[in-house]
Amino acid sequence: MRHLSGVYWIVHQKTGRFYIGSTGNFEQRKNIHLRSLLGGYHFNKELQSDYNRDPSINFEFFETKDKSEALVLEQKHLNQHFISGRLYNVSSNAVASILGGCDLNRGEDWRKSQSVAKNDKKKPVVINGIKYESIKEAARSLNVCHAALSYRVRSTSDKFKDWKFL
Predict the structure, then answer these.
(1) What pTM did the predictor assign?
(2) Which residue, 5, 43, 67, 68, has fewest beta-carbon neighbours within 10 Å?
(3) What are phi and psi of 140, to 5 degrees?
(4) What is the pLDDT at residue 94?
């Protein structure tokens, strides 16, 4: 089965608000969102709250040739809609949106980070110059799951060079 890459919107019908994301496997990502919303543990607290009050949502999908093109298109959508006040996204940065969803393709590195992340919750951390007493505090403040933060703090990527444990 071919995986569809692209940008998706989760639109809450009653409020008119929406979440913008991108993926290399739309069906899988859609199912992850639906499972977490149904289970009451979606990473985006505002979307979860609106869904709990009224579960009328639908998905809109814009296909791209691959994940990197999807990320560029997601950024374009975020740039276009972020100031509208209608987005559930907590960041106007597409890379941060991936982190918010913990959508790191859940590869081997991500799975390993899960066991490490449990020990990281209480360590002080600096993210883009802001000090937090713990990953847990940073996650709450940034509305991002702690596992994604822990993974990125440990990342060697230049994108996250200003993310570190103290």
Answers:
(1) 0.60
(2) 68
(3) -65, -45
(4) 83
